[in-house]
Amino acid sequence: MSYTSSQRAAIECVDRNLQIVACAGSGKTDVVSRRIAELLLVPGVEPANIVAFTFTDKAAAELKDRVLRRVQDAGGSTLGLAEMFIGTMHAYCLDVLQRHVPETFRYRVLSDVTNRLFIDRHSKEAGLTSCPTRLASTPTLYRYRDSRLYQQVLSVLREDEVDDAAVPDQVWDSFAQYIRLLGKASYFDYTQMILTAVELLEDVDDERGRAIRDHVLGALKYLVVDEYQDVNPLQERLIRALTSGGSNLCVVGDDDQTIYQWRGSEVSNILTFAQRYEGVETVVLDDNFRSSKGVVDLGRTVAESLPAGARLAKTMTAAGHQQWQRGDLLALTFDSPQAEASWICDRMVELRGVPFVDGPDAAARGLSWSDFAVLYRSVAKDADPLVDELRRRDIPYVVKGLNRLFHSAEIAAVVTVFAYLVGEVGSETVQSAWENAEIVPSGRDWKSAFGVLETARAIKAGARWGVYNIQRLYLDLLAALEVREDTIPGTPARAELVFYQLGKFSQAISDFEEIHFQSAPAAKYRAFRDWLTHQAPDYYAESDADVGYAQPDAVVISTVHQAKGMQYPAVFVPCLRRNRFPSKRHGGVGLFHVIPDVAVAQPDRYRGTVEDETRLFYVAVTRSQKYLAMSFSPGGNQLFARPSDFMRLASTNQHVSTKHTWLGPSIQRLAPTPRRATPQVTLTFSELKYFFDCPYQFKIRFLYGFNPPLHEALGYGKGLHDALAEVHKRALDGVLLTTADVEDLVDRHLHTPYAYPALRENLVQSARAALERYFDAHGREIPNTIHSEKQIQVHLGEGVVVDGRVDLIRRLDTDEVAVVDFKSTERAQPEDVTRDQLHVYALGYEELVGESPDLIEVLNLDDKGKSTREEVEAPLLAAVRHRVLEAGNQLRANDLPRHQSWCRACDKCDVADLCRSRRDA
DNA sequence: CAGGATATCCTTTTT
DNA sequence: GGATATCCTG
User: Fold this and answer.
1) In chain A, at which end, N or C, are there fewer CB atoms within 10 A of the end residue's CB?
2) Is A137 (CB) below 7 Å from strand C?
3) End-to-end CA distance of chain A
4) Predicted confidence (pLDDT) per residue in A574-633, tens digit
5) What residues does ATP bind to (predicted)?
């Protein structure tokens, strides 16, 4: 791989703060990963000294993979690579907290949906309904209706730089209530994880804060921040705090690609970076290797239409191998959306099989469906005509960025069940909805199914919480109707898709029940039903062919936002309508009705400006490697009847044609061949355990997404683990806890939010007993702790990685090293599965330190459970390595069969009813 | 061309 | 129910 001089400058700059301004297609990820590999060659630099932030988990996975390959290329060692943090800032902060702050071990993270459920469920206590607005018509926010806005207010107050005095006192009161409630329930929302970590790191005076600073900053020598243009003020504070100890900082970004300002991104971070940090070296990567000179020139035109003062100076230049030809770039106008959709399909058919060269040294291949991407400002509002046309013509497609789970007939049918439970519809409605959705074969006996529902409905207030578990009800209902992949009418492919939908619904139930587990039965069903109609549809995406690890050869329909970071040989940007793209400003009760806009430094970020939309258009254009068709057709009403200014901008560019001439039949065509990438498979230890137990159970749980019912004792095992983690971590710091600390430990770590009071008391007792037993039996060995909760990775080659955490690594009196796994219940697990699992741990340890452990141990904390200890054997290690690789290949081939017949794995399987009838047992 | 009346909208998405 | 774009009127 050869680099340009500026790329090399960026890679080699390891001793100064560095700003890499990377244009679209400039090989950014490659440069960053190479630089990290280079850092590892610096004498004295260990993987644990490097932290790299990305914006998404997906980007993190990609960077990790790249770094690994670069390290291998550079002949470096992959030893200990698991100690390098590559991930989002959220994940990093959570990791720091849960590594160093025992009080936070028990905290769980609220997602966007569960956070909203939480706010609505506790609307008064969370301050929602007392939060004032500046509108006479809406004196305060309303439950349900305004909870989303309230979420935004809560994050702006913490993530932005807010002029405290300009925010009304009552708004602050609401805010304080929310924060108090969040802590009381032991939750972090996304913002709070970062804020908590930042405040600890900033607090130089606090004794404990200083200890954490020493740990964190002591290890950190190099910090890399990708997508720096999208960093918000709180995240900038984190970066500041992390580099305050003098670590080297490298930020990478492109101010022209700031597209998340409505989430608080602050472009000025990147614009003024060089002034705000010491001795900054700036490297501009303006060679675009991705696109033809036509695309690059159009992209530059778009970027340069932005006001000059608001950008970093750079001139994107075409430097790749893609050739521009007249006719590649089109700006076309159509009379109707249907005509536009039809032309797009024609154009795809025309381009299919046309020779395309992926890289400078690659052989030509024929373009295939997955080489085409159609990018919309709003898929939800504009993509329907194209989807209809693609379906009509049998062209495969996947739609990204659309929450339509609840539009599907299957889920609509499932929802009727809950309408029935609250007495809104009769049994005939339910039955006919299910039959219309073709989930069950017609003529199925519905008696037992309604029996399940009757039992659920008859539950009285005061019953144990576990009894009117909605998840249980759902799974029982599917079991009663014998809904399984092999009984769903239609082809196996259809059955699989239906199962993905049903699995997602199971996830929705889990989200709801996490917050509403303890609501009284009638209220709970009612709340669930309302949530299903009003809120849930906005959060859950329909499943299409793009699921699991298999990669379909299908046209991609996506929003511009979701296409960020992607590239495609041919890109379509249709529906360039005025008031849609650029989008017009919107009305309604908004952020600034709660927080005055003067309280925020750059309020326009949250409003959206033409410049923001221009940057979005820039992102859309620069996704294309060669072919790009921008088009307009008048939309449904007069607001969208005229073309966007972007149409004019595009058509005045000299590389763009405004008329399309069909390629003649003489043009050379190759067999369509999709770009082949071997998907990366990353598994955790616990997922792998299920896979070893039964591949089909793994599929039901992790690919389809079915969740077992929430268990009332949930949290017990984690609490024990956390308590022991504190014991061992303190030991590493030289503090030895004893039996006298048991009560404290249990208080701090045992969090069982779903336990009814009597159970809770039981769990406290058994947790204390378990810890006391541990101190009795192993107290003497605690000082021999080498690692507690050690992050490990196993790289198996061929893109298969296993991630995990080893509970304990300790030295025995024999001076041997043992890898230890705690089990909190004696719940039987076949012995061979346990051994497989432990050998994977051993592999992880080997990759961490370079030699395998001597022993692997299972320590059962339960009083009856038995503990095992065995020697690590090389042949077993090799065999396990092989089995994990095989698992990765099976996953990629979507080959996850069920066992031949009912077996012992089925006996303990929570989702066995979705697999086979119990009559077979 | 200014200003009032009317029609139409109420994204985008990551953690 | 509020904000905005565009239409309409003089």
Assistant:
1) N
2) yes
3) 58
4) 999 988 888 887 777 888 888 888 888 888 888 888 888 899 999 999 999 999 999 999
5) 22-29
Q: Do A764 and A887 fall within a single domain?
A: yes
Query: What pLDDT score does A358 carry?
Result: 95
The Å distance, CA of A652 to C1' of B1, is 30
Q: Please name the amino acid found at residue A586.
A: H
pLDDT above 90 (res A513)? yes
Residues A786 and A865 in one domain: yes
| Sequence-ordered list of residues with C-beta below 8 angstroms from that of A303, at least 6 positions apart, any chain | A256, A311, A316, A615, A618
How crowded is residue A601: how many other Cβ atoms within 10 Å of its Cβ?
Answer: 13
> Are A177 and A222 part of one and the same domain?
no
The pLDDT tens digits for A872-900 are: 888 989 999 999 999 888 988 888 988 88
Find residues whose C-beta atom lies within 7 angstroms of strand B. Answer: A 55-58, 88, 90-91, 111-112, 190, 262-263, 377-381, 401, 559, 561-562, 583, 585-588, 608, 636-639
pLDDT range class, residue A255, cuts 50, 70, 90: very high
CATH of the domain at A383: 3.40.50.300
Residues 602-621, chain A: which have Cβ under 7 A from strand C?
607
Please tell me whether A28 is known to bind a ligand. yes
Provide the residue range defining the domain that includes A779: 681-914
Closest residue by Cα to the C1' atom of nucleotide C5?
A639
Would you tell me how many other CB atoms lie within 10 Å of the CB of residue A28?
22
pLDDT for position A260: 85
A608 marked as part of a ligand binding site: no
- Pairing relation of β-strands A624-632 and A568-573? parallel
As a whole number, mean pLDDT of residues A767-772 equals 95
Q: Is residue A302 part of a domain?
A: no
Domain termination residue (choose one: A154, A185, A216)? A185
- Structural domains of chain A, count: 5
Q: Is the CB of A579 under 7 A from strand C?
A: yes
Q: Separation of CA A771 and C1' B15 in angstroms?
A: 35
Same domain, A208 and A274: yes
